[in-house]
Structure formats: C-alpha cells, structure tokens
Amino acid sequence: MAFRILHWACRIVLGGTFLYTGYIKVDQSLQFAAALSGYHLFPPDLILPMTRYFPWVEIALGALLLSGWKLRYVAAGAVGLVSMFILLLTITYLRGIDAECGCFGPGERITPLSITLHALFILPALFLAAETKIRIRWQSAGQVRP
C-alpha cells in the first residue's frame, strides 16, 4: 500500500510540475528566451529553437508521467532532463553569472536554493525509474506483500 501511495504521489508531483513549467515557458516564451540567453551557454542561433520546442518536451514528459505509459523509461528521461537542468544551473551559478532560472517563470534567480530545489525533483524520478527493482528487493526481504 505504501508503494502505491508513493508511486502515485511521485507521478502526480513530477508530472504536474513538468506540465506547469512547460506551460509557463510556452505562455511566456520571450521571458524564457531571455532566461536562456542569460546563461551565456548557448549560441544565439539556438535560443529561439530551444524556446519553441523545449517546453513541449516538458509538457509531453509531464503528460506521459501522469498517463503511466512506459513509465520506467519516461521516468529515466525525467532523470536525464532534471540532471541537465541542474548541470546548466550549476555551471551558470559557478561562473558568477547573475541570471534568471526561467524554470518556474520569470523572476527566479539562479541561487544555491534554486539548484537544490531542482535536485529534489530527481528523487521522485529516480524512484519511478527504479520502482520495480526496489519493489523486488523489498519483497525478497519480506518487507512488502505483492
């Protein structure tokens, strides 16, 4: 029962977050483009294509997490995407660039706290990606009933 609750909580939180952040970026695409440009990591020719297509990847990922289709693989994709976010934010912060994150809308600066917040989103994604293996280990240890 605890696994089922944790499973659904992870799917709802992670899927809902990706849907929300994707929608914000679609709705406020110019602010998102400005945030990406502020990272000083991408060639100017890539900013607009990234602004146009990347939010739809987030929206699709959120919808797939909520639907449960190929969940283990979709969750692994979420781990990769969140890891990429963390890497980009960390590089930008360590370079001393005062930039907006652009993840949850305009106005959010890149700080150690924002990097930590993103790192926390790896936990539900990792759980969903490895849930089957975790469940098997717990069952073999006699901790969880099938």
Tell me the number of structural domains. Answer: 1
Fraction of residues in helix: over 70%
Task: Output mean pLDDT.
Answer: 93
Structural class: mainly alpha
- Gross morphology is elongated
Number of helices: 6
Structural write-up:
With 146 residues, this protein is mainly alpha-helical. The chain has one domain (2-140). Helix content is 77%, strand content 0%. The chain is built from six helices and no strands. It has helices at residues 2-27, 29-38, 44-67, 71-94, 112-120, 122-140. Helix 3 packs antiparallel against helix 4. The longest helix is centred in the N-terminal third of the chain and has 26 residues, at 2-27. It is elongated.
Strand and helix map with partners:
Elements: H1 2-27, H2 29-38, H3 44-67, H4 71-94, H5 112-120, H6 122-140
Which terms summarize this structure?
mainly alpha, single chain, 146 residues, 6 helices
